[in-house]
Amino acid sequence: MVSKTSNKYLDMLLKAEPYESDVNTKQRLFNDALLIELKFHYDNNLLYRNFCNKHNFNPHTFFGTLDEIPSIPAQIFKLLGNDLYSIERKDITLTLNSSATSGVPSSVVLDRITSIRQTRAMVRVISNFIGSSRLPFLVLDADPSQSNRASYGARSAAIHGYLNFASSVKYYFTYDSDHKLVFNKKTLINDVDELKNDASVILFGFTFVLYIHVVKQFLENNIRLALPKGSKILHIGGWKKLDDQKVDRITFNENVAYVFGINPNDIIDIYGFTEQMGINFPDCEYGWRHIPVFSDVIVRDPVTMKPLPHEEVGLLEFVSPLPHSYPGNVVQTDDIGVVDKHESCKCGRIGKKFKVTGRADKAEVRGCGDVMSHEIISLNDMTNNTVSTKSGLKILLHPYNLSNNLNDIDLFKRLVSDIQKNQQWLSEQPVDALIGLINQARIIWSSEDFELHGFRKNGLAFLNQWCASQSLRALSDFSLRNRRGYLDGLQYIDNSTTRMITARPRGLVSHWLSGNVPVLGMLVIVQSIITKNLNLVKVASSYSHVVPILLKAFQGLSFKTPGGYVIYGDDLLKTISVFYYDHDDIAILNLMSQESDVRLAWGGAEAINAVASTPARWDVQDVFFGPKLSYMAIGAESLDSSRSIRRLCRRASTDISVFDQTACASPHTIFVERGGSITPKEFADQLSQELQKVLARIPRDTDSKEQIFAINLQRSLYEFKGEVWSSDDSSWTVLYDEEEGLAVPTYGRVILVRPVDDIFDTIKYASNNIQTISLSIKGRRRLLYAERVFAKGVQRCPDIGRMTHFESPWDGIIVMDRFVKWCTLGGPV
């Protein structure tokens, strides 16, 4: 690596007054200083150079504007921070970790040059707000000198940084044996009481610690202090924990000012982040954060990432020439904010200024039961027939009128007793009549004007095909000892003239549905109907309208069997109740479980465990479809011709696109064996072309901002460490690297292709947590691979292109068999 320590333009910026420079002069110096650093990183940091090349950006030939420089998402420093250094390893003096409220912290590596720049920048800004004279610091935290200097948190680093302004320092927290903060309240009270009225001090702390561990305690105990005149309170750190506790900035300032006896204008909230440590943005008394001469801010549209004009709210991107040891010069944060259109401020500072208004919501896992609810249709707006109680139980479909005056427990008991009135009727219905009636509803579901027609790519098309009479008859025969007639009464076994058997309904099937693939909840409801069971259906909050709308298609329907028997849909609906209750309503959960003859639940581990751990009768049947992952395995022999490769990519793209990977049977990783007629990387390229084509057959809905955030993060990551092919929008993404292991799901048609020397090396990823491994392996190897992964807990190995086709067994379970109890007459052979 070539070290370049001088940056005369940055030196000039650091010597200037932070908020008084001429705009044109600042911009010229700033741009020159920035490009010096970007050229250094480009020349000395391979990961950063890869990133730049993917964006067709070369700082040596760049003459554009700041908003054309590719920015690094702050989240990348959580994933690659320790590897993103542009200096010699021996020159790293410190690894700085963020204080991350959850998850993995960001990491940046510092050298002496960067540390000095950070200190100089910090002094220029903070002294502008509190003056250049050193003052006593009362620190509401523990002494950071106990931290490991080689690698410690941003919190400790920040305390050290602010001590540059201290004439003396006292700490009012210590750590106990469990490394928890302990507040020395009496010491602080005594020290403040002894201060002279004209001896100004700085009270310094982290936002959450200051408020929760100090101010809240003092308020509860009616304790007030009186800081000397001219004192200020500086607090830094995120607001997330206080936002969670519903403490807004106005409340914060009022309560802090009340407790410490100062003017709210002397409480200074300082914004900053680890990825550009040393650059601080205190809020002025008018609520604005001012951009110093050695920094700049750009606001971008969260969806398109295009720059927004002043006064429009978007993602905040910060630019600075300060970082030298790592390429943190252009950082895209996940904070939301706005830039004022005016360059002046009543506080006297000039230049660009901004406010932080919130944080971008990050995408959550959308697999079985772990679902984002950005497309939730309000339960209260669903239907005129919705009955809602004060406690939150909401009835979405029920055959009888219900009173609004009932409490939740009594209302739920009424649901059960109402549908139990129809158990005898249901048990007397011929199985073929029930199948025929379901087929009639299927015809309505298939129509172009059906209310849920837009769900055809999210399972409705498959449900329609699956519920055809011939399909349901074949499924019933397969599931019930090759004869669905066992559901209609005693029948002789095989050729016996004395032994008879029948399949009787278990009674009440309780369904806990997940929201990730809402239409497919009907697959098990239909099987429960065919086996003549009553159904209690608890829907998820997201897409809660789907199952009720599907079931309402039975209203007014009838079906006549070839033998002349007529069955009516309105009668069938009297055996089903659909409702919603909040996930923490333990009383309803327990009651539903105790009433069940069969408990059937879809979802993530938390949802399944909640149902499984509730009291139930000893003879209850449990059918749980828990959280699973799936992947593809492609042998080299399948890549033997251009035609077979195109067909394989087309089928793989279908599996990726159906349900947008929200189903547990959807793939997130494709392992491709080396040795075929194309390389695994070339396969990834061809797959990307098919994913673009499949949009015509299986179009995408508009992604939420949260999902776009997750997709863009993965794309940025692979711009550093691998290869990425993607649509212009967020419709599809193909990632490629040569690492081992399974991808962490991103969803939204994001697929990771990884090469292997031997496809059998991927068997080590098989386990009970893998539901489906879709195969393109030929001959004896196919059978041997399947046998080995089955032995490790995998339940399905369909061909590629058929991964998401619901089949029986599913998750190793023949569902209808779990819905019946077998009764025999005549004894054993």
Describe this protein's structure:
This protein is of the alpha/beta class. It has 3 domains: 8-359, Rossmann fold, CATH 3.40.50.12780; 379-472 and 505-625, Aldehyde Dehydrogenase, Chain A, domain 1, CATH 3.40.605.10; 629-791, Aldehyde Dehydrogenase, Chain A, domain 2 (3-Layer(aba) Sandwich), CATH 3.40.309. It has 25 helices and 35 strands. The strands form 8 sheets. The protein has a 7-stranded mixed beta sheet with strand order 18-19-26-23-22-27-28, sandwiched between helices. Strands 1, 13, 14, 15, 16 and 17 form a 6-stranded mixed beta sheet that branches. Strand 20 and strand 21 form a beta hairpin. The chain is globular and about 105 Å long. Residues 363-385 have low confidence and may be disordered.
Keywords:
829 residues; alpha/beta; Rossmann fold; Aldehyde Dehydrogenase, Chain A, domain 1; Aldehyde Dehydrogenase, Chain A, domain 2; 7-stranded mixed β-sheet; 6-stranded mixed β-sheet
Radius of gyration: 32 Å
Oligomer: single chain
Q: N-to-C terminal Cα separation, in Å?
A: 84 Å
Average of the residue pLDDT scores: 90
Number of strands: 35
Under CATH at level 1, the class of the largest domain stands as Alpha Beta
How would a textbook summarize the main sheet? 7 strands, mixed
Number of helices, counting only DSSP H or I runs of 4 residues or more: 25
Number of domains: 3
